[in-house]
Amino acid sequence: PVLVSSFQPGSKSDKACKAMSPTTAPSPSPTNGKLQCLSRFLVYAGTYYHVNNITSCISDLSPCKEPPKSPTVVEIPQTVKDYIQQSKTHMSQKCLDMEAGLQLTTHYVDVSVSQREIVRAGKNTNRCLDKELIITGDIDRQKSSVGQSQVRVFLYLNGKRYNLLFGNAGMGKTTLIKKLCLDWSKDLIPQFDFVFLLDGKQLNLTEPVHSLQTLLLNQSSFAPPCTDPEGVYAQILSAPKRVLVVFDGFDELRDYEMLLQTQEKELVAALQKDSKAQAFTVKQLFSGILQRVLLPGCTLLLATRPRGTANQLLRRADSFLEVCGFTPENVETYVSQYFSDTELRASALDLLKSCSYLKLLCWNPALCHLVCTVLEHGKGSEALPRTLTALCHEVLSLKLEKDTNSSQGGELLSQLSSLAWEGIKSNSTTVPRGRGVSHKVREFGLRTGLLLSQSLTTRTTFQTESVGGGGGGDNSGMEKVQDEESKSKEGKTFDVDEDSLLLWANPFLQRGKGRRKPQREELELTQRFAVGLLFHNRTELKRLHSCSDIIFRDMVPSKQALVMKHLEGLSFGDLSSAQILEVCNYVYEASFTHKDSGTDAGGKVLDHLAAHLPEFVTFRGVPLNPPDVFTVQSILSKAGAEGRGFRLDLEDSGIKICGLKSLVGLSNINTYRACIADVITLWEELETDAEEALLQGAVSKFKIHPLKATQVCHIEHLEKLVSIHTLSVLAEGVPAVKELYKLEFELGPENGPLALPKLWDLLPGLHNLQHLDLENSKIGDKGAEKLANALVSLHSLEILNLSENCIGDQGLKKLAVVLKDLPKLHCLSLYSNVISDEGAESLAAVLPHMASLTELDVKYNKMTDVGAQSLGASLKNCEKVKTLRMWNQCIPYGVFERLQQQDSRILWH
Ligand SMILES: Nc1ncnc2c1ncn2[C@@H]1O[C@H](COP(=O)(O)OP(=O)(O)OP(=O)(O)O)[C@@H](O)[C@H]1O
Fold it and tell me: For bias kind Basic and acidic residues, which ranges apply (predicted)?
């Protein structure tokens, strides 16, 4: 395309997508504990939202350039080889289930996994060790994709010992792990002899009766009974590099961080001394593995949702992977695999096309499954749900309709809802064991898939040769049962065993006791459902018998009024970006769950938000997933219909290019910011599709001022944009570049030098730049020379910060020549460089020619009294200068004081 002829076009397809969770900022709570009845119901709907698989796994990827090198193969005894073979057979049978009726072998969709990066938070990289995950733009995310073959994920693990696998609830971490296990069982991943899956739920086993050996051989998911535990364990210890340990079932990074807290010395010593002693708690053993006290050479893969920062963990890990969820193509594959009947398949795909929001929800695999459940019932597009609430509600209704004993469904559902709401309030994914859940409720919950039951298995370890296949079962010769509630059943069970652990099949009910911020993903979701249901169609609600007539007559309108009052009480200008997004989502649920909204109470809520959303809407730093973009878009366009215009900031939101297109395409968006590389790709797409009006709008509304570059890619992107500006056929160039007045180069001394060559190339294109900040970028004399060449073109420059840059006399000499030709420069900082007398003199020589200079800082350099005196003398000819800071240790105190007495503009600080 002409517009972008100067550089490599990016990929045009949105093939990767982002799986980031919204942040946990405090948010308005329309429920405020007052909508309990309905919200309980909604919790229930939410509970159904995702039928979760509880297993454990780990993985890490990075692009694999070479075939993996297996560590030296140690001779493995035959009995151990047999065990490995048995493990593989066992795993290949046991890890196949994804959802009821869906299996990995027939329904799995190859998803992309991308690498994520972290940065040190804060400007001073030495002082601040905190690290954060970077939210990358769409194009960069696609570039960092490790591809779709799961085997590649494993190859990627090669040599990386500490791997984190991120993904929001339902995005497919557990499923990916199972697929990896399946691949391992098929000998596709030869670098590991052993793969063990550990599960966060096992932390419920609090008795100190475990050893590393029993943890791995008896407690890990999908492990078969072992005839020769001693031999196998010895083999594991002798070649830990050939062992992969996967942790899953921890809901947040923080849960892992808790396991990284320093252990007592005696405990560490005990773990190291005798890892076979059955004297440890599961928690101690998990800690031992995560802290590299136990099995130090093994590869770890930790699956987790990305919420919250867990600095210790981020600091330790070598690689960060993320499951990207489904692309539109993946959704099509999933739907095609889900519907084996060709006619049903075609109609499902057709229906999905007509329902944008549902289609976007399918980005999340767990929701994609729910969408298929609804599509399966073949209602026309008019009857399809349009919100998350309506989707979950519909699935729940279908589920209950199918339930044979549904006569009591309403009552049981209500009881289950109370339990779920308690769980949300107490931050627990499990139903407390002492809670005395009635048999009926338990059975109902398990039957409908709202509850899962998991026995915290202590697997049989055979002492004899009499191993029978992979089944756990009630075998004789069983080791001591280590938890009174543990059963000798295999892994996860779904029976009505009163003793096993009851879990909500809902990924949004998170664990942890009160130490978290109160506002969590699941609570946000509950509120979203609560609001949605409150404004739902009454006939629909009645289908589940969850509310009486009185509730409809009295409570619903009064709660609706409360929501409205709450909304009216919000001061939108004070809300954080995450809160704005939450409000948009609540309001979307309220306004669109009911089919005929627009004229009713839900419509009023929408009107209010549309009228009061601030004119500047920023989602900077808040992950915007595809359905979020849709809700924001509907609210913005509603406001547009009322004549309101907006400025949008979408930087660091991970928005996909198609989402960017839909928002930028709104006629009432006056200006926008977003990842430059993504914007350029959008322009390219618009140009290729000959969407001229949209292209023109997308170019003219784009803004980048002021720009703070904190990563190398920011400068790479800017370079592309500047080259479009200078080379493009657009007569007026790119307005965003022309209007860039301030550029802060904040990559720090480590990364700065990587991007400097590009910076020098692009700088001359920024004709209108007024403020350039290059502090602490290690530019040195060479860089100073390059900068001098670029400065010739920057006639508008007013402020130049070159503090802490290792610039010496040579560099300053080059700079001095051009500094005098910058007619508007009024502030120059050369603080903390290595300038000595020679440099000071060359600066002194040009000082009187710097027509606009008012502030000069050369403090903490290397000049002595000689240099100081020449600067002092030169100052006499510079009327405009207001301050000259130049103290350093090489200038004798007396000299400095005298200079100061002569000219009060000379300052210490
Ligand atoms: N690649 C895939 N192909 C087909 N279905 C998938 C895929 N990934 C996920 N799913 C579906 O989505 C559901 C949720 O996935 P999964 O349990 O793996 O999510 P998760 O990221 O582990 O969530 P949580 O954080 O709640 O544990 C699965 O049960 C499965 O039905």
Answer: 480-492
Does the C-beta of 582 come closer than 6 Å to ligand 1? no
What's the gap in Å between 541 CA and the centre of ligand 1?
Answer: 28
Measured in whole angstroms, the distance separating CA 542 from the mean position of its chain's CA atoms is: 38
Pocket test for ligand 1, best of 149, 173, 175 (most atoms within 8 A of CB): 175
Phi (first) and psi of residue 380, to 5 degrees? -70, 165
Amino acid at 68: P
d(CA 745, CA 699): 24
Which of 105, 174, 252, 430 most suits a substitution to test ligand 1, by most atoms within 8 Å of the C-beta? Answer: 174
Tell the residue nearest (CA) to atom 9 of ligand 1. Answer: 172
Going from the Cα of 392 to the center of ligand 1, the distance in angstroms, rounded, reads 17
Over the stretch 599-644, which tens digit does the pLDDT of each residue have?
477 788 999 999 999 999 999 989 999 999 999 999 999 999 999 9
Instruction: Enter the ipTM.
Output: 0.99
54 lines ligand 1 (CB under 6 A): no
Q: Region 475-504: what's the mean pLDDT?
A: 39
State if residue 369 touches ligand 1 by the CB under 6 angstroms criterion: yes
Superfamily of domain covering 78-121+128-323: P-loop containing nucleotide triphosphate hydrolases (3.40.50.300)
Taking alpha carbons only, the member of 99, 679, 730, 686 closest to residue 369 is 99
Strands, E assignment, 95-177? 97-99, 102-103, 113-115, 118-120, 131-133, 162-166
Taking only the tens place, the pLDDT of each residue in 39-83 is 333 333 333 322 222 222 223 323 333 444 444 555 788 999 999
Q: Is 365 in the pocket of ligand 1 (CB under 6 A)?
A: yes
CB-based contacts of 517: which residues, under 8 Å, 6+ apart? 24, 26
> Domain ranges in the chain?
78-121+128-323
* DSSP designation for 11: -
What's the rounded Cα separation, in Å, for the pair 33 and 45? 17
Taking 3-state DSSP, the helix, strand and coil percentages for the chain, each rounded to the nearest 5, stand at 45, 10, 45
Contact 479, 460 (CB under 8 A): yes
712: β partners? none
d(CA 423, CA 122): 37
Q: Are 498 and 469 in contact (CB under 8 A)?
A: no
Is the Cβ–Cβ distance between 459 and 407 less than 8 Å? no
Selection from 113, 155, 163, 156 nearest residue 298 by Cα: 163
What are the tens digits of pLDDT across the range 340-374?
999 989 999 999 998 889 999 999 999 999 999 89
Does 336 contact ligand 1 (Cβ within 6 A)? no
Residue 98 alpha carbon, nearest atom of ligand 1: 29
Sign, CA dihedral 622-625-629-631, equals negative
DSSP string spanning 369-413? HHHHHHHTT---GGGS--SHHHHHHHHHHHHHHH-TTGGGHHHHH
Q: Is the CB of 174 under 6 A from ligand 1?
A: yes
Closest approach atom of ligand 1 to CA 337: 4
Mean pLDDT of the 412-440 span: 69
Does pTM surpass 0.80? yes
CA distance 349 to 354: 9
If you ran DSSP here, which 8-state letter would residue 292 be given? Answer: T
Those residues whose C-beta lies under 8 Å from the C-beta of residue 657, and which sit 6 or more positions away, are 14, 138, 139, 678, 681, 682, 685
Give residue 503 CA to ligand 1 midpoint distance, Å: 17
Q: How far is CA 729 from CA 541, 599, 653, 899, in A?
A: 59, 49, 31, 56
Q: How confident is the model at residue 24 (pLDDT cuts 50, 70, 90)?
A: very low
Length of the chain: 909
∠144-357-116 over CA atoms, to 5°? 15
Minimum-distance ligand 1 atom for the alpha carbon of 248: 27
Burial class (CB in 10 A: 0-12, 13-18, 19+), 409: buried
